[in-house]
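Quick one: structure tokens for this chain, please?
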Amino acid sequence: MKLFKLKNKENKFKCNCCGKIYDNIPMTFGNDYPAFYYSIPDDEIENRIEYQKSLCVIDEKYFFHRVRLEIPILDYSENLNFDIWTTISEENFIKRNDDWNNSERTDNEPYFGWLENEIPTYFDTFHLETISRENEVGLIPSLEIIDENHPLYFDQQNGITLEKAQKIVQNILEKQHN
């Protein structure tokens, strides 16, 4: 009879690049800013960009919001998550701000946008068509890829294997370590 339940060693994940061993495979990655942010010269950022953790305006005419793209993993209990950025219309940006603390915001219509970051291991994700759906207060919106011809759409709709998720994670970690 075992008195203590030992941790499942199968959840451990070793980075091939640096050898670091994680207790659990990292499942959430993200971008601090929309890609357009990086095109602004450092000495102009303060005058041209308004930024908060999940909202960004550039030149008072380009609007972005942070969203979560979830890819289901068929043979694992968690999703692979990307906290990334999409464009959003000025009208919807204002609505998001107005409803920031509104518990009924989940009733809002989805927001159309264009993906503003590349997703590692998926080719050409920049400017994919998306819709974002509000979540409860305190959570960023959920992102849905609507470009049916892209592999990311297929994977989001149908899920991926844990093996594929691990390859994606390994790819991301290698890029972060270089």
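The radius of gyration is 18 Å.
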